[in-house]
Amino acid sequence: MTPAASGALALAAQVRAGERSAASVLEESLAAIRGRDPELHCFNALADAHARERADEVDRLVASGTDPGPLAGVPVALKDNICTRSAPTTCSSRILAGWTPPYDATVVSRLAAAGAVVVGKTNLDEFAMGSSTENSATGPTRNPWDTGRVPGGSSGGSAAAVAAGMVPVALGSDTGGSIRQPAALCGVVGVKPTYGVVSRYGLVAFASSLDQIGPLATTVAEAAAVLEAIAGHDDRDSTSLEQAAPRCSEVLDDGARGLRVGVVADFLADASPDCTGAVRAAADVLAGHGASVEEVALPELLHGLSAYYLIAPAEASSNLARYDGVRYGLRVDAPDVETMNGRTRAAGFGPEVKRRVMLGTYVLSAGYYDAYYAQAQRVRTLVARAFARAYAGVDVLLAPTTPSVAFPLGSKTSDPLEMYLADLFTIPSNLAGHPAMSVPFALGEGGMPVGVQVLAPALGERAMFRAAAVVESGADPRARGPVPARGAR
Amino acid sequence: MSGGARAGEDAAIEGVAGYEVVVGLEVHCELSTATKLFCGCANAFGAPPNTQVCPVCLGLPGSLPVLNRRAVELAMRIGSALHCEIRPSTFHRKNYFYPDMPKDYQISQYDEPVNADGYLELPGGARVGIERAHIEEDTGKTTHVGGGGRIHDADHSLVDYNRAGVPLVEIVSRPDIRGAEQARSYVSELRAVLVATGASDGRMEEGSLRVDANVSVRREGSEGLGTRCEVKNLNSLRSLGRAIDFEAERQVAVLRSGGRVVQETRHWDEDEGRTSSMRSKEEANDYRYFAEPDLVPLVPDEELLERATRAMPVLPAARRVRLSALVGDDTAADQVTTVVDLGLDDLVVAAAALGADASLALRRAANEAAQRPEQARRIDAGVFARLLSLESAGTLSATQSKAVLAEVLESGGDPEEIARRLGFEALPAAELEAVLDEVVASHPAEWERYVGGDDKVAQLLTGLVMRATRGRANGKAVAAALASRRA
Amino acid sequence: MSGQLSTEEVAHIARLARLEITEEESATYAGQLSAILEHVDAVRRLDTAGVPPTSHAFELRNVLRADEPRPCLERDEVLAGAPRAEDGRFLVPRILGEEP
């Protein structure tokens, strides 16, 4: 049995009780990675030496009668845009190839404090820009359900690693859906917390006002446990909220009685029948558990995509300016610094990153700021207002996570716009700063998993997890990872 | 470059007669905080390169800024001292590529600065409007290697990021300054205010205070502003004045030759004594400002305002008013300015309160004490007052008093004791009369003229007595003795 | 403003963004960026009169840190990732442009 199949919580319980060693759990995880990663390419780098030290430390603590924490000995994979001293952090970009940060992200310290063991860094779309993990300088990750299909993105490596049973849990980052969309496409749970609940310190920025770190796991309960470990105020992040980590594990058995659920009607028309059907079935499950369910009309949310593709590239164009060949990462030599900057960036960034940097530069430039960027920020306000209108009457919203199941590799790489549409249903929560999560629910086209998205207002994590646990209880168990190796179909 | 501009480059020698020189100044002031603006690295000058840096001020991927409370308080303190409105403010990113800037954007304040609409009152009473005084981060330092250290001739450059992220307040004046002299007066007054508030050490030579000048000229009597040029690399008050004079003359020469002034940034070369165009191959700057997503707005609540204005010292303009009123002499304005600039006004005021002659105290402070301001700020007001009283009473001559003051400044001590040690006890009347006898005997012609009513010769006679007594005689006593002999 | 970018505009943007691009790339990007801008053009047509812009998800204010020193990095760590360094500093080739 792989570590993921045992489940993070069961593993931690066994390690804490001294029934299993963290070292043996780690070795199982590393063996699973060695077995499947050559085919799937979930990992950019392993931190195995450091992980073994950490696992031994956990075992020593247990032996000495000290509790290593709620995630004792749990192997965790980190998206390769989260800074670690123990392994390079490359963002799957040539421009950062081989760069090892001299510091750990706050979430890394928090995971360590909870007893978890970081095993390695997972593949992503370069700088988290993409929805398929094909925009990676280290090559694409494949979907463990069907290696001819994408795992989604940009946290595709993390989602696939959990789905393939290499690790029970992983962290990703979500700027426009980059945790939830791959979670849905890989049949795992993915959570984007409220903006400011998890520290961004050490997360390599894509679009700072939208980025948020969150967990991927096989179950809602495991995702809750990881979120509790990494969340909470951090004085190194000015946008970190004062609130303590939301205690979501407590509400998982609360059921749905009295819960008011809204189904986002506007999204149903734009999704494939399997995705729409899953949302309707999940709504029925909630209603069956005593929730009230109604359809809500939120047409403004559909404008979120356009606003997002102005705001995110604008911020990215500034965040990615620092990769200039001066202080770290790639340098392409040239006789003067300006040419060196230009050649380094030309050689170091892939086409999608360049496209977004140029788009963002354009919309911020003189004469276009008001027409594009400022207007997009007003639309962002409209999206938040639409949500506020909905949440006046319901506790959570239900929507498809994605317009379709995982698509074949290479099928959308030639048309950037087509790829952008994959985030249509996930983007609004990022614009509003709200929490949202994807729960695997059913099998759809080609036997691929379909996720259902639960959305909640700011700091509404407890209601969200409560609803998600009920949805999970009514889900098709076959739709959930880990999946055995099957290869391409 | 237009022909007119070329003419101006070569012929900036004809003066600016018929034109008015209009100057606005941008002063960057490094704040005296313990740590940098957005991280806990030390804000200190002179450490070995790249030893005062961390992920934040190095702009490493994933790092985030957190605003320094003390920097905010000092910025508000500057705003308060400059009579600005202290307002809710936000931070923006100013995007441009330069190797000394770790993130390739600078975190600054843009359309919502913390301080706006104030003024600085100069000695003499003129007020220069302050458009804004906003918070921003400093850049690193670049050293150009090869080619004589000049940027474009250099073989390569080396970058030290110790200064990157040091808190700055940029103080932007309105174009209210007329000419080089007033510009220098503005900067030295601003410097005094910044030092007095504790916001900065004001050291221009260490780069704590950096000045850029926007210079334009217009026909005397005209209302509108001419096209301005921004002059950079002004490292001292002297270069500020010279650069403005040169630039104004250059612009006037351009206009006189029928050319047009081109709006541009110009570099002051201290050795050559001229400004030259800094236009590079880069296109016009487009900084693509947008709200810094990693920082939240700053709102001056009561706590911040209270801390910003707490223990605010009396500022130079008010101190000059106080001192002038005490002395009651309009002709002493320069001495008042000097004494306030050197921080010796408290000494003068305190000595006067202890009974010393205020005018004499001002004179001795502005002339003698000003030679050694460090020591003068440390001397006890009672000692200073006693010394001045000895002089007023005629116990010490002016020469003797100055000598005693020099000794007090040098090594401290009691004025009477020092006077005794230096042999400055008042000349006994009998001895003075004896010396007078000698002088009258040896200069009969002069004495005749004096007796005949020629007062001009009194000075000569007094001088002769002084020389004979080696300065021990008191001027007033000599004058009295001479007068009584003539009577 | 039609949302159609010329290759000259693309070249200008690339210079602002410090990306060296070929003429061929310039043409490709002109087409792709124009398509994206055309798609997002709907945003520009929305009536947002009186709607304030949102730059931050939440309205936090006055997040401040005490002026207390924290340890800096060791210089070895600082320069570890440097493509080139000399005398404890980062080495860059000749700088053509002046600092703004």
What does this structure look like?
The complex is a heterotrimer of chains A (489), B (487) and C (100). Chain A is of the alpha/beta class and 489 residues long. Chain A has helices at residues 3-6, 8-16, 22-40, 48-63, 106-113, 156-163, 180-186, 220-230, 265-268, 273-288, 304-319, 337-348, 351-364, 369-391, 416-420, 427-432, 461-473; strands spanning 43-46, 75-79, 117-122, 169-173, 189-192, 213-217, 260-264, 292-296, 396-400, 436-443, 449-455. The model of chain A has no long low-confidence stretch (mean pLDDT 96). Chain B is built from 17 helices and 15 strands. In chain B, α3 (180-196) runs antiparallel to α4 (237-256) and α14 packs across α16. The N and C termini of chain B lie far apart (81 Å). The relative contact order of chain B is 0.11. The longest helix of chain C has 23 residues, at 23-45. In chain C, 39% of the residues lie in helices and 9% in strands. Chain C has three helices and three strands. The mean pLDDT of chain C is 92. Chains in contact: A-B, A-C, B-C. Chains B and C meet through β2, α2, β8, β9 and β15 of B and α1, β1, α3 and β3 of C. β9 of chain B pairs antiparallel with β3 (89-93) of chain C, so a sheet runs across the interface.
CATH-assigned fold name of one domain in chain C: Histone, subunit A
Name the pair of protein chains with the most residues at their interface, and give those residue counts: A-C, 68 and 53 residues
**CATH architecture designation of one domain in chain C:** Orthogonal Bundle
Give the terminus-to-terminus CA distance of chain B.
81 Å
Report the structural category of chain B.
alpha+beta
What is the H/E order of chain C?
Answer: HHEHEE
